[in-house]
């Protein structure tokens, strides 16, 4: 663990707390009948929990790595964030399946996964998430250019 993880951990903790405050006012529902706040509440709790774990580990780290500001982490973070922004803009016109598949391929390639693993995992994750939201939860996803 790295002592430089304190700043990102605090930033995500702040984002999680702000999101939690915003979401807590919405109706939650139940596991069998989720309402507006169900999914965002779970995500904010996960963000807060993981940021607290990262913060605790960064304080427990002795010494830590000293390195340049522009290292491998930042070289992956910037294209990943840009990809998420593009994903948000293209989700409606291209559709959930196409955009999710492309963003997962981007993430896997940033991690230098093999093309075989990239394609397999991206298709599998896209199909599973589509099946869960569209068929199980009956939550319509943006159709876009594909007929499903």
What's the layout of helices and strands?
Elements: H1 6-23, H2 38-60, H3 72-94, H4 96-110, H5 115-136
Count of helical regions: 5
Q: How are helices and strands ordered from N to C? A: HHHHH
Helix content: 55-70%
- The best one-word shape is globular
Tell me the domain tally.
2
The unreliable regions are none
How can the largest sheet be summarized?
A: none
- Counting helices, strands and paired strands, the structural category is mainly alpha
How confident is the prediction overall: mean pLDDT? 87
Distance between the termini: 43 Å
Describe this structure as you would to a colleague.
Helices cover 68% and strands 0% of the residues. The protein is mainly α. The chain has 2 domains: 1-67; 68-142, no CATH class. The mean pLDDT is 87.
Task: Compose a concise summary of this entry.
This protein has 148 residues and is an all-alpha fold. The protein has helices at residues 6-23, 38-60, 72-94, 96-110, 115-136. It has 2 domains: 1-67; 68-142, no CATH class.
Describe the structure using short key phrases.
single chain, 148 residues, 2 domains, 5 helices, globular
């Amino acid at each position: 663990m790295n002592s430089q993880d304190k700043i990102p951990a605090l930033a995500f903790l702040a984002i999680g707390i702000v999101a939690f405050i915003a979401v807590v006012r919405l109706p939650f529902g139940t596991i069998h009948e989720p309402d507006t706040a169900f999914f965002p509440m779970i995500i904010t709790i996960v963000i807060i929990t993981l940021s607290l774990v990262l913060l605790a580990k960064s304080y427990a780290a002795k010494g830590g790595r000293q390195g340049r500001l522009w290292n491998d982490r930042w070289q992956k973070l910037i294209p990943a964030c840009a990809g998420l922004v593009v994903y948000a803009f293209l989700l409606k016109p291209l559709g959930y399946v196409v955009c999710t598949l492309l963003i997962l391929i981007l993430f896997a390639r940033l991690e230098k996964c093999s093309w075989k693993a990239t394609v397999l995992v991206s298709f599998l994750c896209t199909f599973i998430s589509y099946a869960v939201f569209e068929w199980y939860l009956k939550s319509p996803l943006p159709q876009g250019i594909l007929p499903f």
